Amino acid sequence: MSSRRDWLLQQMGITQYTLRRPRALHGEVSISLPEQIRLIIVAETPPPLTDPLIRDVLAALLMREHEVMALTPEQLAMLPDDTRCPSWCLGLAEPVAIDGAQLASPVLAELYHNADAKRALWQQITHYESDFFTDAARS
């Protein structure tokens, strides 16, 4: 039914728009990024920031828990489009749509037992060290 409607609108030269965030119409509120946040951790099930491996990574990045925000991909989509912040994707197949350095690793449970994945994460941190160890203001 909608394909016929789409075809008719196309024939009449009417441009259809698609909402990027249709959930916003259902009352979901957008998420804002507080100024002190220096890293966004994105995972299907965000890990607790008190996890020992997470704490080790944050210590290596010279960050404290209050400078980190853990979100699901759905919550990340609620951030404003112009958000710029380094991110760490845990177990996601695709990179996230946010400006800034992006670290990627397997899910936390796998990262604990995979030395190669840990090494790759540390190499990424080293590669993006200027993004993590500077106080440049976010745009």
From TrEMBL:
Organismal lineage: Bacteria, Pseudomonadati, Pseudomonadota, Gammaproteobacteria, Enterobacterales
Function in brief: Part of the beta sliding clamp loading complex, which hydrolyzes ATP to load the beta clamp onto primed DNA to form the DNA replication pre-initiation complex. DNA polymerase III is a complex, multichain enzyme responsible for most of the replicative synthesis in bacteria. This DNA polymerase also exhibits 3' to 5' exonuclease activity.
TM region positions: none
Keywords from the UniProt entry: DNA replication, DNA-directed DNA polymerase, Nucleotidyltransferase, Transferase
Domain of life: Bacteria
Name this protein carries in UniProt: DNA polymerase III subunit psi
Residues forming coiled coils: none
UniProt-recorded Gene Ontology molecular function terms: DNA-directed DNA polymerase activity
